[in-house]
Amino acid sequence: MSALSPAPAPAPGPTDGPEAPCSAPPALAPSEVTVRAAAVLEEVERAVVGKRSVLELVLAGFMANGHVLLEDFPGLGKTLMARSFATALGVRYSRAQFTPDLMPADITGSSVFDQATTRFRFQPGPVFANLLLADEVNRASPRTQSALLEAMQERQVTVDGETRQLDRPFLVIATQNPIELEGTYPLPEAQLDRFMLRTSVGYPGDEAEWEVLARRLARGEDEPIVRPVLAPGELQAVQSSLENVHVSEAIGRYIVALVAATRAQPAVEIGASPRGSLALMLLARAWAVLRGRDYVVPEDVKAVAVPVLAHRLRLRPDLWARGERPEPVVSACLNEVPVPAAGSGGDDPPVGLTGGPTGRDGQRRAVDGTGAERLRPGVPG
């Protein structure tokens, strides 16, 4: 059986020449995104049971236009999660099973000779999709792993000297197995840094595992039914809406201080880079929208700091040899770095009676005495 699962084709695929990315649809108001995100999570939970926090984290990564790395044992629903998100988000999905004999052209595509036209034509690989599942990515050779680098960072691939743009959005959800490491190739730091976050699924609790069995008995078939929630192209509007989420200077400096603290830890050989700071800010904005806010508070940063920063740290060789993990280092930084004080802009709504940034919908967000958000007309700045 082929290791590659080609993308379905509800929309035209790439042509033989370079293809310009489609223009993004108009952004939605953050309050609309909150409602749509909740509907997507509810639909995905029809297939993935008892993992709400993990699903929220993965969805936040997609909303922030970031790639996700899932590291966990077999049989915990990683592939099912990727497939369910692709359906609920209304995007084209493809899957590549990474194996030692997989070649770069198997990922990016290649030129094949068409005898009917006596010309070469480009046959796109699974990377030409909106959501690519790179299953067991650490089993492929470094040469094949590197084929993903340009696609993940630049959203384009170069084949036979010709650059081809990928469809927007382009997201990668990669999995790797922490056991059976014989014959595997650990991802290099340069590629790990391309993932916005790394997380694990974990075993379900007893009640959740019984719910998996009960649902299987009730539906009478193996595959759970997940229906589209977002229309094609709507995910781009969701991603654009995050530009309306306010990040105060105090929050920004808090993020910078957290990332700088990872570089000063005695257990760390190489700390997080400025790309980590940017990823932390972007994911915190998505997390704030999931919590129904259009501004970021320190709790949003804390909630996503470990998944965003831990995989970007290189521990000292002696600690790595003992099997130490970088997650406790990030937790230590969270305990050490002072949280912005109330009134410094760190946990205050960006808009109130004194005004603030106006969103694209021409409205200002205000908070009344009960803490409930309301809209009031925007005032020119």
Commentary on this structure:
The protein has 381 residues and is α/β, with parallel strands linked by helices. The chain folds into two domains: 27-223, Rossmann fold (3-Layer(aba) Sandwich), CATH 3.40.50; 245-350, Helicase, Ruva Protein, domain 3, CATH 1.10.8.80. The chain is built from 13 helices and 14 strands. The protein has helices at residues 30-44, 52-63, 78-89, 104-108, 142-154, 189-192, 206-219, 234-241, 249-264, 274-290, 298-309, 317-321, 327-336, and strands at residues 4-5, 67-71, 93-97, 109-114, 119-124, 131-135, 156-159, 162-165, 171-176, 195-199, 268-270, 314-315, 363-367, 373-377. The strands form five sheets. A six-stranded mixed sheet has the order 1-3-6-9-2-10. Strands 4-5 form a two-stranded antiparallel ribbon. It has a two-stranded antiparallel sheet with strand order 7-8. The longest helix has 17 residues, at 274-290. The radius of gyration is 22 Å and the shape is globular. It starts with a strand and ends with a strand. The model is unreliable at 4-22 and 351-381 (pLDDT under 50).
